[in-house]
Amino acid sequence: MTGIALLGAGRIGQVHAKAIAQAGAKLVSVFDVMPKAARAFGEKTGATVCDSAQAAINHPGVDGVLVATSTDTHVDLILAAADAGKMVMCEKPIAPSLAEARRCIDTLGDRVDKVFIGFNRRFDRSHAKLNAAVRGGEIGSLEQLTITSRDPYPPPLEYIPVSGGLFRDMMIHDFDIARWMLGEEIVKISAEGGVAVDPEIGRLGDVDTAIVTMVSASGKQIVILNSRRAVYGYDQRIEAFGATGMLISDNPSETSVKRFDASHFAAPDAYATFFMDRYTGSYRAEIEAFVDMIQSGGKSPVNAVDGFMASYLAEAATLSCQTGRSIELDVSGKPTWDTPS
Ligand SMILES: NC(=O)c1ccc[n+]([C@@H]2O[C@H](COP(=O)([O-])OP(=O)(O)OC[C@H]3O[C@@H](n4cnc5c(N)ncnc54)[C@H](O)[C@@H]3O)[C@@H](O)[C@H]2O)c1
């Protein structure tokens, strides 16, 4: 049975622990800088609680390492696991800054394919089916891609200053979806951000409502919409428009009941949940893909360079939003701006 070490027993660590059990792998060891959290986690899962990340990585029976810690610790933990010869899965984003993301891929060198970045939305059944249909030519040449991603409610205010900002923390998923759908890089980006949800978010230096437009190397147009609040629930849609048709990966509804009355016409129940419920299947599928990668010794389906390129787009979007300029991009991820990142 494939053995996994888990670093970080917080919110997403707990989601992954369930997926590891469902995927038929074994959670062998766990480390968290908060010993109480680690102990509670160990008792619940049967994993050995270790007193350092290195001890968890090196624990007997560990084949792969799952990094689910706070973003500022990702790069050092990816490198520690890779240096120990383990396959690594790391939560998004790969790093809190573009410079750190660059350090990660430069240090990994030809080991970038041993790292699996947790862009779980690629493993959502509907998004994956849409992706396969686009790539299979079902709508002819893809011309426009619209990605909508709205959270039901904003995160706690104390999270805002450490989040890296909406583009690096939240829209990073959508940048990855865009690259995955297009199969090519982005050459131009323009971002607008505003504060429509909570003025406190603005006072803390972030935006809560944003729109990004991008153009790909072959001229395809992309729009991404983000909001930190949607009263009707977690809003996650992808629309791909092509020469011979359109494909939509829509929000699932809680049940198949539809209402017809004075104020509803075929309105399904709202799906008022968040990522843990909406993407349960994708978390399981990505762990299964990670276990497959460990067992086969194959290449990561979402490697460290994918993590870096998403961070590149997030950095450029942040800058575009701050300066009001659109930014021409380099397909290799070289910064085209002077601002230190
Ligand atoms: N893919 C997704 O859908 C998704 C969803 C939520 C969070 N995330 C990402 O997962 C990561 C964790 O987010 P979260 O919401 O679980 O946060 P969290 O604060 O709930 O959990 C993080 C845990 O990591 C621990 N930790 C911090 N530094 C550590 C270190 N050096 N070694 C070991 N443990 C350490 C903390 O004590 C905490 O228990 C973030 O990078 C976040 O962006 C991804």
Main attributes of the structure:
341 residues, alpha/beta, Rossmann fold, Dihydrodipicolinate Reductase, domain 2, seven-stranded mixed sheet, six-stranded parallel sheet, 13 helices, 15 strands, 24% strand, binds nicotinamide-adenine-dinucleotide
How would you characterize the overall build of this protein?
- This protein is of the alpha/beta class and 341 residues long.
- It has two domains: 3-120 and 282-300, NAD(P)-binding Rossmann-like Domain (Rossmann fold, 3-Layer(aba) Sandwich); 122-278 and 308-328, Dihydrodipicolinate Reductase, domain 2 (2-Layer Sandwich).
- It is 37% helix and 24% strand.
- The protein has helices at residues 11-22, 35-45, 53-58, 74-83, 98-108, 125-135, 160-163, 166-169, 172-182, 199-203, 275-278, 280-296, 304-323, and strands spanning 3-7, 26-31, 48-49, 64-67, 87-91, 115-118, 142-150, 186-194, 209-216, 221-227, 235-242, 245-249, 258-261, 264-268, 327-328.
- It is globular and about 55 Å long.
- The chain starts with a strand and ends in a 13-residue tail after the last strand.
- The model has no long low-confidence stretch (mean pLDDT 96).
- The chain binds nicotinamide-adenine-dinucleotide.
